[in-house]
Design a protein that fits this description.
Layout: E1 4-9, H1 16-28, E2 32-37, H2 39-43, H3 51-62, H4 70-73, E3 84-90, H5 92-100, H6 106-115, E4 121-127, H7 135-142, E5 147-149, E6 152-154, E7 164-166, H8 171-179
Parallel strand pairs: 1-2, 1-3, 3-4, 4-5
Antiparallel strand pairs: 4-7, 6-7
């Protein structure tokens, strides 16, 4: 593979392991991967990962240092560093910021910088309010140029009535579709 993938992690901590598993698949497929962490993911220890352990694991998989500041994410656009940018997991907070054009994190800066080159942005949502407050932001992004989604669906309809998570196993095929200008269907499982 000659494509360079930006792979950004946001703070849906319970799905970080799924993101790491997808990252391994992409590395094994031969992609060059540039990892990007939100500031929260880069600095927060959780019950799912210690921040330093996650940093070490991702940098080892990608063989690249993690971008984790707005300053370091900004050159992604002018230098045309990526063929595609994947945000997996993408929180409801980040969905809202992307929909509103807010650029106040390393991940939203990476997205803004990347999209200026008219290249695809692939979003793998993971949010407890996908079918409530975040629904409007998902709708706006579905209509945005060069923005694609990894198919997603309810992760626990009985206990978390409005929560949706992307099918992280579909990230590789979603990347191929997005690079061809296509949305993988069905978008909502």
């Amino acid at each position: 593979m000659n494509e360079t993938i930006g792979f950004a992690f946001c703070g849906s901590f319970c799905t970080l392991k799924k993101g790491v598993a997808a990252l391994r698949q992409l590395q094994e497929a031969g992609y060059n991967i540039l990892p990007i962490f939100s500031e929260i993911v880069y600095s927060t220890d959780t019950r799912f990962y210690k921040a330093n352990d996650l940093i070490d694991e991702v940098e080892h998989i990608c063989n690249n240092k993690i971008i984790h500041t707005i300053k370091d994410a900004e050159p992604i656009g002018p230098k045309k560093m990526l063929d595609i940018l994947v945000i997996a997991p993408c929180t409801g907070n980040t969905l809202g910021k992307l929909a509103a054009g807010i650029t106040d994190t390393s991940v939203t800066m990476a997205a803004k910088a990347h999209l200026r080159n008219e290249r695809p942005l692939l979003i793998a949502p993971s949010t407890n309010d996908a079918l409530s407050n975040s629904a409007k932001n998902i709708g706006l992004l579905l209509n945005a140029k060069n923005v694609y989604f990894v198919p997603f669906g309810e992760d626990d309809p009985t206990s978390k009535h409005r929560s949706c998570v992307a099918d992280f196993t579909l990230i590789p095929s979603s990347i191929q579709a997005a690079l061809e200008g296509e949305q993988l269907q069905p978008i909502i499982k």
